[in-house]
Structure to design on (367 residues):
């Protein structure tokens, strides 16, 4: 606005440029819209969420370890830690049905991986390995701090995520075709 | 409509003709054509949002959202109508959506024809900044009507449709806005 004088209200400037260029944000939204409508967008592999889950759990695990390393108790993994962890697993994870179901899934997923193109197989296997490694780290941490309710909950949630990821990989071919 | 507003609507029509080719290209997914449309119209859209919201950040957000919605709605745009008016309608909707609570209180109108008035003019020139401040001080409903009809030259029927109110209410709000504005300018807003 300026000190220009007007004699009627319709002499006010209709054009008032925005303080910043809005185009970059509009352009980004348009590109996202185009990408969502592209024919390939609907054919996203069903195993892709597994990679996301793995990344999320890995992040949480890293967060837990950073938190623990800043705390007063120092955790050093020893050979006996994993055995100790097995004894302090939450009841849900010690359930025989859960273990059996998981073993069956692992076999089915292995078959599915064998049928995948090499590049895809590498990505999926790496994601599942990350997921598994994160769970292992939480188990190990739980071994040194068995009463930690947060770690127990984190472990149960992570194992549930693992089951979902394994199921997604197993079912991926069935839904895409 | 008064002479000044009519002249501006004619100017707008000229722009509409020029826009047709760009609109067609944008409809086919050409974002560079849409950018041209954005550059041509963003000042008016933002001005409208700023006057309706009185908040620079919110106005920029509303203008941005309005253009994104316009891109998505382009296939439904009917080329025979004014692109500018269509865009303004989207912008007004966006502002109304972002507002909390009732948009425009209905004012009882006994005889809407009594509110037919020419464009508001002043006995002596007023500083633009002072006038903008006086407009900003108006109640929401009165301000909306004044901005759309007085500043942007829309007919009562168009403004009422954009605001989702009756034509009579729009006329009454504009009448109220004029009275308040005159009073505030005489007293000095700031």
């Amino acid at each position: 606005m300026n000190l220009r004088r007007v004699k009627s209200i319709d002499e006010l400037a209709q054009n008032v440029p925005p303080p910043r260029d809005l185009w970059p944000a509009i352009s980004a939204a348009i590109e996202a819209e185009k990408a969502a409508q592209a024919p390939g967008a609907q054919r996203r592999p069903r195993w892709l969420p597994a990679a996301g889950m793995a990344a999320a759990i890995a992040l949480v695990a890293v967060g837990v370890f950073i938190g623990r390393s800043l705390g007063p108790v120092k955790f050093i993994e020893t050979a006996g830690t994993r055995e100790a962890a097995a004894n302090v697993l939450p009841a849900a994870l010690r359930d025989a049905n859960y273990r059996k179901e998981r073993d069956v899934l692992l076999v089915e997923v292995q078959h599915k991986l064998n049928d995948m193109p090499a590049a895809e197989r590498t990505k999926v296997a790496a994601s599942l390995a990350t997921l598994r490694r994160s769970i292992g780290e939480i188990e190990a941490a739980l071994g040194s701090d068995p009463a930690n309710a947060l770690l127990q909950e984190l472990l149960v949630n992570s194992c549930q995520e693992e089951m979902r990821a394994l199921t997604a990989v197993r079912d991926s071919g069935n839904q895409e075709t | 409509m008064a002479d000044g507003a009519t002249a501006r609507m004619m100017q707008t029509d000229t722009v509409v003709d020029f826009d047709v080719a760009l609109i067609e290209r944008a409809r086919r997914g050409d974002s560079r054509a849409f950018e041209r449309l954005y550059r041509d119209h963003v000042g008016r859209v933002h001005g409208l949002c700023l006057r309706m919201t009185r908040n620079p950040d919110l106005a920029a957000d509303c203008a941005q959202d309005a253009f994104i919605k316009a891109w998505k709605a382009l296939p439904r745009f009917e080329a025979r109508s004014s692109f500018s008016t269509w865009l303004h309608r989207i912008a007004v909707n966006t502002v109304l959506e972002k507002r909390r609570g009732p948009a425009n209180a209905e004012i009882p109108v006994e005889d809407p024809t009594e509110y037919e008035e020419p464009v508001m003019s002043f006995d002596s020139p007023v500083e633009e900044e002072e006038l903008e401040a006086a407009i900003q001080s108006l109640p929401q409903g009165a301000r909306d009507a004044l901005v759309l009809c007085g500043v942007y030259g829309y007919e009562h029927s168009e403004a009422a449709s954009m605001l989702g109110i009756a034509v009579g209410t729009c006329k009454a709000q504009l009448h109220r806005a004029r009275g308040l504005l005159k009073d505030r300018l005489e007293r000095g807003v700031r």
Observations:
- Residues 149-176 of chain A form the longest helix (28 residues).
- Strands of chain A lie at 5-8.
